[in-house]
Known about the structure:
Blueprint: H1 5-15, H2 28-37, H3 43-56, H4 60-64, H5 68-73, H6 82-97, H7 106-110, H8 117-126, H9 137-146, H10 159-168, H11 174-187, H12 206-209, H13 227-240, H14 247-251, H15 257-269, E1 274-275, E2 281-282
Helix pairs in contact: 1-11, 2-8, 9-11, 13-15
Amino acid sequence: MAELHSPILDWYAENARDLPWRRPDATPWGILVSEIMLQQTPVARVLPVWHQWMERWPTPKDLAAEPSGEAVRHWGRLGYPRRALRLHACATAITEEHGGEVPCDHATLLSLPGIGEYTAAAVASFAFGGRHAVLDTNVRRVFARAIRGEEYPPAATSAVERRLAESLLPEVGAARWGVAVMELGALVCTARAPRCADCPITDRCAWRLAGKPPGTPRKGQAYDGTDRQCRGRLLAVLRAAHGPVPKAALDAVWDDAVQRERALDGLVADGLAEVLDDGTYRLPG
């Protein structure tokens, strides 16, 4: 399987996007922020928000010094805003327990609030050069096609996938290998319209050689009319205000009262909003 390394790394050297969190001057904190933001969110949407965050909060200590509600406010329209709360909790833990420095080892990263296996491996690898298998959706799809001959990876990361990814790690340059495979999946070996003619390993891809047998794609999540959309509308009102918001202002943005109350209760339960004694609402303080 080592014959995959050179063509993919050569392709990456010619085709890699110039992203700020990949540059030599990127800080471990900047890389951690990017990894949280990029979960289920395209690069084009992340870039402007990442730049705003890094200008406002260039270190974990800077973010930890502000209320968690400010993290939610400046999360903007990235979606899944609980990630903003997790980043704030992570910044607080880094500040209080690690002297304001992002830990370099995988086990300590895993102990931070909101940091799972993927993010710990990505930060340990991309920020500190550690030798870890970084398995995001793009990497899993490349390996599924190129090696297992399957169009799509399983819904959840399996132990078999982890063992395969670990077996492919080069002894030297594992971090660059990880980001190269990730980029190949993002730009060429895409989910819906793979550009096999542009792939550096098309001549050895098991899926292509097998005639591209169809798999079962994961269904995209509906958004219009859902509780998630309702929550987003309510949060947009709270983010735009720099103080408590009367209930009537929230009622005005969603017609379905039952759904609206359910979504509002959910925001409060998730720590994304607070209800005050006078019945007004605000971002967490």
